[in-house]
Amino acid sequence: MSRTSRRDKGEGPPFVRIRLAIAGLFMLAAYAVIGGRLLWLAIDEETPSRERVSQLEVPVLERADIVDRNGRILATNVPVDALYADTRHIWDPKEAAQELARVLPELDVVELEQKLSSGAAFEWIKRDLTPRQYASVRALGIAGLAVKREQRRVYPNGHSAAHLLGYVNLDNRGIAGVEASLDTTLRDPKRGGEPVTLSIDLRVQHVLEDELASAIETFSAEAAAGIVLDIHTGEVLGMASLPDFDPNAPNYDPNNADEDTKARMFNRASLGVYEMGSTFKAMTTAMALDAGVVTINSTYDVRKPIRIGRFTIHDYKPKTHPLTVTEIFEYSSNIGTAHMAMDIGASRQQIYFDLFGMFKPAPIELPEVGAPLLPQKWGDVTTMTVSYGHGIAVSPIQTAAAFAAVANGGLYIAPTLLKRPAGTGVPVRRVVSENVSAEMRTLLRRAVTEGTGGQADVPGYPVGGKTGTAEKAVGGGYDEKSLISSFIGVFPALSPRYLVLIILDEPQGTEETHGYATAGWTAAPTTGKVVSRIGPLLGVRPEPIPLEVTDGATQMAAQSDR
Amino acid sequence: MISFARSDKNALSEWWWTVDRLMLAAVFALILSGIVFVLAASPAIARRNDFESFHFVWRQLSFLAPSVALMLFASLLTPKEVRRVAVGVFCASFILMIAVLFVGTEIKGAHRWLSLGPMSLQPSEFAKPAFLVVSAWLLARAAGGRSVSLIAAITLLGGVCGVLMLQPDFGQTMLICVTWAAMFFMAGMSMWWIAVFGMAGIGLAFGAYTMLPHVSARVDRFLAPDQSGTDQVAVALKAVSAGGFFGVGPGEGLMKHRVPDAHTDFIFSVIAEEFGAVTCLLIAGLFAFIIMRGLTRAQEVRDPFVQLAIAGLSLLIGLQAMINMAVNLSLLPAKGMTLPFVSYGGSSLLATCFTMGLLLALLRRRPQAAERWRWV
Q1: Which of A115, A488, B42, B186 has minimal Cβ neighbours within 10 Å of its Cβ?
Q2: Residue A57 pLDDT > 80, yes or no?
Q3: Domain segments of chain A: what residues?
Q4: A19 in contact with B at a CB cutoff of 8 Å?
Q5: Does ipTM exceed 0.90?
Q6: A160: CB partners within 8 A, 6+ apart
Q7: Is there a catalytic annotation at residue A278?
Q8: Residues A208, A242 contacting (CB under 8 angstroms)
Q9: A36 to chain B: nearest residue by CA?
Q10: Across the interface, which of B229, B240, B248 has its CB nearest the CB of A56?
Q11: Neighbours of A379 (CB within 10 A)
């Protein structure tokens, strides 16, 4: 074959070069389509593309986070996979059920096989798959199984604040605690995923739980509850009830739970109602002063027990001389307080109690709020017994709010679990005058320094407060051995900002308490421990602790003065 | 750096002066970028399968040296040797293809792989280039008027397609048929023959759709996409949009967490998501260059066998890349096909490099075409 021109270069049959070119053109056209498609997809601006993939990855947040007052997460969501079956595509239900039960041993084979052979287009198999379970199910490669991305509620602090947070059901609806009471807010799409900020301070909550746990341990108590309250804003900084539960896995069926589980789920701080005992004397004394029936120097004869009908009112440690109002409060005299209550009178007492919020369930953002148990008729006996906290049962949170009004200048502020933004007004209701409140602060301090609450005091953080010891009502009577011991303290004593309430259910005396289980020996020291730990956390400036100053130190101080 | 003088007569320097260096550069660009992309896409898959993060990266790197060596070695062959090697490899891999039907590992419902200790080999990957070279030889002879060769070529095509459909591997069958048909066309067969084969091809494709359930399922899903957005193609499409022109950044993509084949069949959309459409255009451009370079160079070759084999091999690589990209961009129904040089897969990389080696060997400047060689 002769080599002539370029055109004849191609060997073999004719048209080969043209056909090569045609093939090339086809390929070029195909690649042009690919390039065009790439550009078209890249330009595609109809929907912000990044958003589309992120929607693909994580579904829209259904439930807002819950955070504490400092933004620490209390409740959040993690995406989990939920396994379901389109049973129309299951080839062999029996085999599929066996395979599934092998990797998810908690499922029942028989039940699974029934589900898988139901012919339904949608059948839940298991929600909340762990990533490992998801991988092993996927590895089975069973046709007709698919997963749905779901959100699972998670409480990263475990048991902490369990009662007040509550928990959600399988469908992520709140069924207890603030999860239930704020359910609508948490699911409100208009909030745009903004977390709900509680008034709780996680650090305070932790201290409270820690000290309650060690009090239960030390005094072999059945249970315990505690509240830390900002008395000027009504914000609850901590609220705990022990024993508690893990909101991540409440496993609670109210219709079919044993006593132990019920006890764990029960929020003693808000749902439980107790005869609070002598802590009520703070309210009675404040109302007596406010009504003008006494001054702090008025005296009452407390040497004889009061007999009225079949009732006798005793004092714990009978006194041999008349007591002033200050002394009555210091020594926690039932007789003196009862006399004061009679001077106030039943009707005024009821008005004051109503103002203190004693007659209605505490207005707090929880579904678990106990209604007070009130006396059926309000005769003289009632007037006297309720004055020192007997014959009336209220919840600890109710008591805390009332006690706050005694100490904060006389204003009742509804307690709240939501953080109040700085600068917003706090709705208040005057109960007693500012002067009376100031006098009460002095009395509360004296009850600690001179009276039964001495063990609540903390160096640097002076505490004012009142003990309360009540016998548990058992079968219509009272049981001297079963006590509810409580202490309510405010600090710093004379210009208080925070209130700590501790209540112990059936504490037992120890060697160190000389066998006493009364509040002064149990709840008071627990309060002191809480105060000493949360005082620095809350930025309360400690008062200088008086020191024994040696001569050398004086000289050094004098020198440095120069 | 070793330098070769043009006058040197040893094999290496001769190879260096005769090899198509632009083609070689394109291939190395693809292989090197492939490592980067596997690095971006595979750790997510590795972790999902309980492997160490860089499991697939190390594996891919360990296949790199043998693959490149195989390519360079193959490129040293003369056309005659290429034909002989092709015949040998074709016979061996065809036997293995039949063997995997009985002893092969079943992966995702298909018998395509042969387990060889730590790696699995897909014989059809090697059969493809070998078969096309053999076909080029037969078709070139057929175009020269030997009808025995034509019958042999058609018989071989039928055999290969039959075995592939038994695995079943519809994608590879399509690829081989289309490439073979293109070669048949380019060989200069009469339009009458082409019409007959065109009808037969359409008939077979329709038959596959109606007779084979998994083929019809895939085509149906392509024609009526699942709106739930969960299948691989839908996810890939969203990923490509998400990437825009310059991508969301290496490692930042989300698609690889959702798609099981993100490091193999769907690596192109991962590239689009993380590195952007511009990078994808560059990759597509490299493949387009490989085809056009092959077809242009084929124009200048005299030997009909060499001409047809060059065209066939470059089409094979270019078509496979095109189909893979088209699937990623939802232009074609999903089929198991890797992006040559780029996708993870030792067997695939080895076979693609073998294909390229044969192509490079045929493209080498030879005395009879010497005056046509231009440095581009």
Answers
A1: A115
A2: no
A3: 66-197, 204-557
A4: yes
A5: no
A6: A202, A205, A206, A209
A7: yes
A8: no
A9: B281
A10: B229
A11: 12
